[in-house]
Automatic annotation (TrEMBL), chain A:
The chain crosses the membrane at residues 6-28, 75-98, 118-138, 159-183, 189-210, 239-264, 284-305, 317-338. InterPro entries: NADH_UbQ_OxRdtase_su1/FPO, NADH_UbQ_OxRdtase_su1_CS. This is NADH:ubiquinone oxidoreductase subunit 1 (Chain H). GO terms for molecular function: NADH dehydrogenase activity. PANTHER family: NADH DEHYDROGENASE SUBUNIT 1, NADH-UBIQUINONE OXIDOREDUCTASE CHAIN 1. One of its GO terms (cellular component) is membrane. GO terms for biological process: aerobic respiration. It is found in: Membrane. Signal peptide: none annotated. The keyword Metal-binding does not apply. It is a multi-pass membrane protein.
């Protein structure tokens, strides 16, 4: 009973809260990092160094008036933020933050579940998020959100192809769809897959930027062009849901990249004995550290690069990334057969 | 016992959503119910221990094909007038509009062009824009007069979206 | 533009998108009604006038010296240039000789103003294209110029920095040294901007070949300033009809080759450097002497009319002033606003481009709505 119900439920509660807190602090981190890049301070007023800013933001957003435009499709308009948020959260069910560890005299795996189609599960759930975006733009009954939601959905759908292709080559490498299995196979190989599959790694990263609508691919929500994008008409907590979903997706992509390419919870060079002192650091710290590095790069890029144009983005996706990704799959397959 | 309860609840929900899919008037809502339906069916697969099938069900049907449906439906669904400001206190909705039928006739006299992707969805236009039920006709013409912004835009992007989505749908099958 | 073809099944028509007057990238209260085919701009209507205050008419009811501070309110990010233009026009009308020291300081103010205005342009232009960091960097340097202006005349935005016949104030002690320090800082910061933008692939893709306009067409459109020079026309009032002390300094007029957004960007970046060059020369050779020429206490120019133009950061700002010789205010006052003239070209520039390019092009012609609408 304890193992089948209590522990998983406890884990779900902890993880869900951790993710939500991480997401709100992600917003603060972004503001801070970008401020530092731009030689200013960022939020400083709420709490020491602005540490309580997320709480203030949350209170502000929750107490704001929630406006539904007249002639908007009320039900769809209300549902779409939820449709965006839910897939972003339930993906975390299969992310392995660490191996099984001893906790209170009980062996507890540091993931909620390890299903044998884990990677496919992530891809399929993530593909549902696009509904929220299309419907948000459509149901707002306004032109800017509509333009933006079309941009967003076209972007998401086309970059998903490239990303899925890189995942295929990763599956060829690991020989399993299970997230834990992928990490384990990197331990067996004694090497992070990023070193074996650099091309897939880069494509995955670029595609990840595009799929999370982050700079330089943030044109669906380019406030300079489309005054905010598909969530232009949203206010209050419903707007916050879009906002949080975007950051949750960033964390998902980072976790995924870490699991697939950077050895998940493994320390650097897991096969080199000389570095075994690194094992003193708990495995989940390694995982979180690597994820953090990824997130930092996301923010760094946002502070540095201008934005692509819609047609350039599509050209990059279809004419560059997808052919390379397909080529990568073919090469990986051939190498796998020959070796 | 527990499994049976879950099964019957799921089945009831599936049937319920299936009925909603065909009974609801708003086509976009109908598509959303269809998605719900697919997701619940996927749950049924999970109960049967067929996780792979469940995930593929979500990925291909809910995530891929129905997105395509949604685009098509947004394309032909003319129920969304963005521009006309209607005073909520002076509602013209309940007043029968004698000219509505005339517009239908006008539409019939100018059949839409043919060829290309458009032809494939001609039947949808026939069904949705020009229904045979008289009172529905009035409603639809009412909507037709207030043409939404999105439709025009979608019309031009349709080929792109179709191509994108076909590839998207066919991609998982490469597994 | 509408093509009459056999009606397709999906009856398409253009999407009319109202951009502004409340839009983050229209640099004020500009309104553009775009007609879109997909995201491509088929045509655009540019609607101005949301900031119209009737400054020209207002000027006809003010004393000659009161008008200076009205000119502040036109191009409010380059107030000193408008001040200078107006004062020189009146001086021309009255045939007043301005002392050399005042001419030099005016030149320094004008060039500092040019750098400040270009900083603002660079920041907003880059921001429109999505490079948000450049915005804050450019504003950081603009702040230094505002500090210099504050020390000189006490104001940070609307300077009221010149007087008919000279200047209100001599430069404060140590100011020239600070200006020189600023020049050194600016020189190094320009490298930062260039690192972020000039060779950035995305920046190149977003600006190269966007809004191309060749020299003859640009002239026909009435474009002026850096926007015109980007198309390869070496027209610069500072060189062609020197005013203040510009004829005493060495500087070059950068011109573009392609006439696209990227060239206009390069031209303005080079103007930063040329302005610094002019400022350094002016500070080095700053003559001693009075700062106000022989001007009667009551300014009442003789009857007649005149047109005089100076090169503001946006382009050629000209003043046409008619005096009846009797009253203490102008009989007729009219401004040739460079922003307005450049805005005329916008419709031609954005046609055929995408929505994202529209904001890039608005940034690229560098308009200030206070001046467009007056």
């Amino acid at each position: 009973m304890v193992d089948t119900l209590v522990v998983p439920l406890l884990k779900i509660v902890i993880l869900l809260n951790a993710v939500l807190i991480a997401v709100t602090y992600m917003v603060l981190l972004e503001r801070k990092v970008i401020a530092w890049v731009q030689s200013r301070l960022g939020p400083m007023r709420v709490g020491p160094y602005g540490a309580l800013q997320p709480i203030a933001d949350a209170i502000k957003l929750m107490t704001k008036e929630d406006i539904t435009p007249t002639r908007a499709d009320r039900w769809v308009f209300t549902a779409s933020p939820i449709i965006v948020m839910v897939p972003a959260l339930i993906v975390f069910a299969v992310i392995p933050f660490g191996p099984e560890v001893e906790l209170f005299g009980r062996s507890v795996p540091l993931y909620i579940t390890d299903i044998n189609v884990g990677l496919l599960y992530i891809v399929s759930v993530a593909s549902l998020g696009v509904y929220g975006i299309i419907l948000a733009g459509w149901s707002s009954n306004s032109k800017y959100p509509l333009l933006s939601s079309l941009r967003a959905s076209a972007q998401l759908i086309s970059y998903e192809v490239a990303v899925t292709m890189t995942l295929v080559s990763m599956i060829l490498m690991a020989g399993t769809l299970s997230m834990v299995g992928i990490v384990e196979s990197q331990r067996e190989a004694g090497l992070w897959f990023a070193f074996v599959q650099p091309v897939a790694f880069v494509i995955f990263f670029i595609g990840g930027l595009a799929e999370t609508n982050r700079a330089p691919f943030d044109l669906p929500e380019a406030e300079q062009e489309l005054t905010g994008g598909f969530h232009t008409e949203y206010s209050g907590m419903r707007f916050a849901l879009f906002f949080l979903a975007e950051y949750a997706n960033m964390i998902v992509i980072s976790c995924l990249a870490v699991t697939l390419f950077l050895g998940g919870w493994l320390r650097p060079f897991p096969s080199v004995e000389a570095l075994s002192f690194l094992d003193l650091v708990p495995s989940w710290i390694w995982f979180l550290f690597k994820t953090f590095v990824f997130l930092y790069i996301f923010l760094w890029i946002r502070a540095t690069l201008p934005r692509y144009r819609y047609d350039q983005l599509m050209r990059l996706g279809w004419k560059v990334l997808i052919p390379i990704a397909i080529g990568n799959v073919v090469v990986t397959g051939i190498a796998k057969v020959l070796l | 016992m527990g499994e049976a309860v879950i099964f019957y609840v799921l089945s009831a929900l599936i049937l319920g959503f299936a009925v909603l899919v065909i009974s609801t008037r708003n086509t976009v809502h109908s598509v959303l119910f269809l998605v719900m339906n697919f997701l619940l069916v996927a749950m049924l697969y999970v109960m049967l221990g067929a996780e792979f099938l469940a995930v593929i069900q979500v990925l291909v049907y809910a995530g891929g094909i129905v997105v395509l449906y949604l685009f098509v439906v947004m394309l032909v669904n003319l129920k969304r007038p963005p521009e006309v400001h209607q005073d909520p206190y002076i509602s013209g909705r309940n007043v029968p509009q004698p000219w509505a039928a005339l517009v239908v006739e006008e539409e019939n006299r100018h059949p839409r062009g043919s060829g290309g992707i458009g032809q494939a969805f001609h039947f949808l236009q026939d069904d949705v824009v020009r229904p045979t039920v008289p009172h529905a006709r009035i409603l639809d013409i009412d909507d037709h007069q207030r043409r939404p912004a999105g439709i025009d835009y979608l019309g031009q992007r349709f080929a792109d979206i179709l191509a994108v989505d076909v590839l998207h749908v066919s991609c998982p099958s490469l597994f | 533009m509408k093509i009459e073809a056999p009606r397709p099944m999906f009856d398409t028509s253009e999407l009319v998108l109202n951009m502004g007057p409340q839009h983050p990238s229209t640099h004020g209260v500009l309104r553009i009604v775009l007609r879109l085919d997909g995201e491509r701009v088929v045509d655009a209507d540019i609607v101005v006038g949301y900031l119209h205050r009737g400054i020209e008419k207002l000027c006809e009811n003010r004393d000659w010296s009161q008008i200076i501070l009205l000119t502040d309110r036109m191009d409010y990010v380059a107030a000193a240039s408008s001040n200078l233009g107006y004062c020189e026009t009146v001086e021309k009308l009255m045939s007043v000789e301005v002392p050399r020291r005042a001419q030099y300081i005016r030149t320094i103010l004008g060039e500092l103003q040019r750098i400040a205005s270009h900083c603002l342009w660079l920041g907003t232009h880059a921001m429109d294209i999505g490079a948000m960091t450049v915005f804050l960097y450019a504003f950081r340097e603009r702040e230094l110029i505002l500090d210099l202006f504050e020390e000189y005349c006490g104001a940070r935005l609307t300077y009221n920095a010149t007087r008919i016949g000279g200047l209100p104030l001599d430069i404060p002690p140590g100011w020239d040294k600070k200006v020189r320090e600023f020049c050194d800082i600016m020189d190094s910061k320009l490298g930062e901007y260039e690192t972020l933008l000039t060779h950035n692939r995305i920046w190149l893709e977003r600006t190269k070949g966007i809004g191309v306009i060749d020299g003859p067409e640009a002239i026909a459109m009435g474009l002026c300033g850096p926007t015109l020079r980007g198309s390869g026309v070496p027209r610069d009032v500072r060189k062609d009809e020197p005013y203040a002390a510009y004829d005493e300094f060495d500087f070059e007029v950068p011109i573009g080759t392609e006439g696209d957004t990227y060239d206009r960007y390069l031209v303005r970046l080079e103007e930063f450097r040329q302005s610094l060059r002019i400022i350094r020369q002016a500070i080095d050779g700053l003559p001693e002497g009075p700062i106000v020429g022989k001007v009667p206490r009551l300014i009442k120019p003789p009857a007649g009319e005149t047109y005089h133009a100076v090169e503001s950061p946006k382009g050629e700002i000209g003043f046409f002033i008619a005096s009846d010789g009797r009253s203490t205010n102008p009989y007729r006052f009219r401004v040739r606003p460079p922003s307005f003239c450049n805005l005329q070209g916008l419709r031609r520039l954005i046609r055929g481009h995408l929505v994202a390019d529209v904001v890039a092009l608005i940034g690229s012609i560098d308009i200030v709505l206070g001046e467009v609408d007056r």
